[in-house]
């Protein structure tokens, strides 16, 4: 069975490196599925879940707060603004981040403050949804 190599990195460092049978990612225009020998692709990512299906069939979920997805025929690289492994997911921290973003949005004074607060809220909401899915919580 053909495989591809996947690297997920963020400013904090390497998050994941390994082989995959398939990769699913939240591209800015919609979710994409990447199989081995995929045509080269470069696209932006929106906050959401990157899922790596290993050759054994296990699915490894990772939260990304946006970034860039680069696809080569046998290599997928995710350059994430922020990234989080499922095992490191913390629902309380995700909920607090969402509440903090909502407070910033309510207190925004300029268009730039408003845009930044909206962006932070979108990322925080996606992170909270990711954590709830991973931990088996309700939506």
From TrEMBL:
- One family from Pfam that matches here is ATP-synt_DE_N
Give start and end of each ATP synthase F1 complex delta/epsilon subunit N-terminal domain: 4-83
Q: Where in the cell is it found?
A: Cell membrane
- Record Gene3D superfamilies: ATP synthase delta/epsilon subunit, C-terminal domain, F0F1 ATP synthase delta/epsilon subunit, N-terminal
Span of domain ATP synthase epsilon subunit C-terminal: 90-130
Matching InterPro entries: ATP_F1_dsu/esu_C_sf (IPR036794), ATP_synth_F1_dsu/esu (IPR001469), ATP_synth_F1_dsu/esu_N (IPR020546), ATP_synth_F1_esu_C (IPR020547), ATPsynth_dsu/esu_N (IPR036771)
Instruction: List residues traversing the bilayer.
Output: none
Q: Please give the coiled-coil regions recorded for this protein.
A: 98-134
> One Gene Ontology cellular component annotation?
proton-transporting ATP synthase complex
How does it associate, per the subunit comment?
F-type ATPases have 2 components, CF(1) - the catalytic core - and CF(0) - the membrane proton channel. CF(1) has five subunits: alpha(3), beta(3), gamma(1), delta(1), epsilon(1). CF(0) has three main subunits: a, b and c.
Q: What does this protein do?
A: Produces ATP from ADP in the presence of a proton gradient across the membrane.
HAMAP family reported in the protein's UniProt record: ATP_synth_epsil_bac
The UniProt similarity line reads: Belongs to the ATPase epsilon chain family.
Report the protein name in the record. Answer: ATP synthase epsilon chain
Species, as recorded: Solimonas aquatica
This chain is encoded by the gene named atpC
